[in-house]
Amino acid sequence: MGSLDKGVLTGFICRLCSEMHRVVLHIYGEEGIRLCISEKINRYLSINVSRSDPLPKTICKNCLERLENQHRLVMRIEQAANMLKGQRKARVTRGAYVSLCEDQQNPPASE
């Protein structure tokens, strides 16, 4: 049997794929809390987990890897969106941004 201190259990059903696995990670164990597994499941998947629900509280290695990949993808997308918003804001501040919605009939006077 795996170390309960690290939240590794053996012979349990994965909450996500519902398959029996020899080694799983307890969602609310020390390692599961450190990795924020329940928060990631609740954020990225169309299911909610809680300590009080009657379903399994373990996740297999494959599902954990997929969940972590999803997390990295979302973090990368959010980081890129923030960077693009920052660049757009900088262009607007410098006056380099021209809105497509500006009044076409009153172009700015040339100097």
Low-confidence stretches: 1-5
CATH class descriptor name: Alpha Beta
Number of helical segments with 4 or more residues: 3
Mean pLDDT: 83
The secondary-structure class comes to: alpha+beta
Radius of gyration: 24 Å
CATH topology: His-Me finger endonuclease fold
Shape: elongated
Give the tally of structural domains: 1
Order of helices and strands: EEHHEH
- Strand residues, percent: 5-15%
Q: How would you characterize the largest beta sheet?
A: 3 strands, antiparallel
Question: What is the terminal-to-terminal distance?
Answer: 79 Å
Count of distinct strands: 3
**Into which percent range does the helicity of residues fall?**
40-55%
Assigned CATH architecture: 3-Layer(aba) Sandwich
Strand order of the largest sheet: 1-2-3
Organism: Leptosia nina
Binding site for Zn(2+): 14, 17, 60, 63
Domain ZAD: 12-87
InterPro entries: Znf_AD
Structure in words:
The protein is of the alpha+beta class and 111 residues long. The protein has one domain (8-94): His-Me finger endonuclease fold. It has helices at residues 30-34, 37-44, 61-94, and strands at 8-13, 20-26, 58-60. The protein has a three-stranded antiparallel sheet. Helix 2 (37-44) crosses helix 3. InterPro entries: Znf_AD. Residues 12-87 form the ZAD domain.
